[in-house]
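Example S7 (structure tokens).
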């Protein structure tokens, strides 16, 4: 009989003397405290909507995705692996790299806040600090100074003196430059293969045959023999300070 108990759920709900209601009506705030509470809710909802984009620009995702894009172009296969697969792989490795920072943020900020030991402002400052340290370690001083000069701000002395609206764009520029440097190193061996194949075809008088058709199988074969995915992921992950 126990497996038929779920059939009584609709009867219990409709037979309940009081059914809780949800009020979704909007009304003007009647006090400053109520206005502040409403604004806090709006800010939280906005941050939740922008959370995926914020996470992507403050983590290792940009470098990983750009490097994988360079690898796909260097192999001569613009459509393989598909973009969805490269994005998913970048996300998985990003979670792997950022896990220690996220764990530290949880222990120092979210956990005490849920236990009502600290306020939300202090929780935010504590929670964002590990990610700021990560971004500062991987941001070039030249890129950071660029945005400080644009805003005419004094040089920072501590991590807390670096605002996020300056650190995030400086971090993204540094990530793009580093990703292009890694992409250039990835292109070199495949470029040599293309040059060798083109020279051989010209020496044989087969100038009408596209070199890419001949070099592509050799690129894939060499990439498999050297365990390319292992080498690239290991070096990209180790490139983060």
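Recovered sequence:
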């Amino acid at each position: 009989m126990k497996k038929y108990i779920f059939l009584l759920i609709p009867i219990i709900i409709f037979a309940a003397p009081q059914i809780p209601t949800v009020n979704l009506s909007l009304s003007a705030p009647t006090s400053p405290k109520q206005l502040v509470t409403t604004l806090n809710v709006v800010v939280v909802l906005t941050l939740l909507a922008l959370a995926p984009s914020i996470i992507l620009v403050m983590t290792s995702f940009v470098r990983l995705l750009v490097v994988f894009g360079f690898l796909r172009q260097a192999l001569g296969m613009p459509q393989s692996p598909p973009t969805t697969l490269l994005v998913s792989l970048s996300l998985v490795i990003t979670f792997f790299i950022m896990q220690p920072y996220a764990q530290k943020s949880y222990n120092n900020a979210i956990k005490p806040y849920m236990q009502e030991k600290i306020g939300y402002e202090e929780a935010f400052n504590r929670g964002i600090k590990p990610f700021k340290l990560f971004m500062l370690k991987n941001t070039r001083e030249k890129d950071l100074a660029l945005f400080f000069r644009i805003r005419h701000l004094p040089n920072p002395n501590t991590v807390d003196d670096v605002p996020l609206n300056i650190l995030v764009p400086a971090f993204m520029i540094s990530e793009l430059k580093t990703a292009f440097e890694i992409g250039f190193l990835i292109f070199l061996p495949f470029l040599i293969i293309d040059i060798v194949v083109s020279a051989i075809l010209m020496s044989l008088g087969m100038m009408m045959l596209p070199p890419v058709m001949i070099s592509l199988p050799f690129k894939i074969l060499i990439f498999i023999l050297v365990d390319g995915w292992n080498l690239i992921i290991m070096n990209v992950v180790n490139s983060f300070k």
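Notes on this example. Confidence is low (pLDDT under 50) at residues 1-19.
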